[in-house]
Amino acid sequence: MNKVLVVTYSNTGTSLRLARRLCALKGWPLGEVDDAAPRHGVAGAWRCVLDSLLRRTPGIDYAGALPSEFDTVVLVAPIWLYRLAGPMRSFVTRYRSELHDVAVISVTEQPGPHDAPDEITRITGRAPLLHTDFTGQDADDGRCGLRLLAFAHALVEAKDHVEPTRLVLAPTADQLIAGGLSRPQFPLLPDQDLRSWGSRKVPIG
To answer: What ranges do the domains of the chain cover?
Structure first.
């Protein structure tokens, strides 16, 4: 049985809400990454900017189970300036030797490309099994549970494959339900293709 841990960092609360919802849907435990030094006001905002631009690994506190005790760790991570949020970078760096398989839910302000999955690959030496994006608006949408469930089911399927693959789910619940979507409807990365998932077609990176 695949044991899954969800780990999140959340400066504004958006990623935490999404992570808690995923845990509630699947009964998975939650670990939380926090800043060792709080980010407040303008100074805190500038720290976020510099952490991203310089790819810094700021000091963190982690409250949760050991990643080594789980087959898969799902990272629910904010994106700052198209890059992985500094505190989540610190978590991945600190625990990289304990991360067996990783899946990523990136939380962005607006839809668009970013390099979080590639950065995680560089740090851990392994590509994430799955990757999908949510915006802050998605996280507050009552229908986001459908996409979270789809992600969870796809994660189980991905564990059955020998070769890891990154999955990018449809950007809205309505599109996911509709199925049969074509490439032009998605802001895909250059190496992305389509793969059948169940009776649906979802973009894969």
So the answer is: 4-165
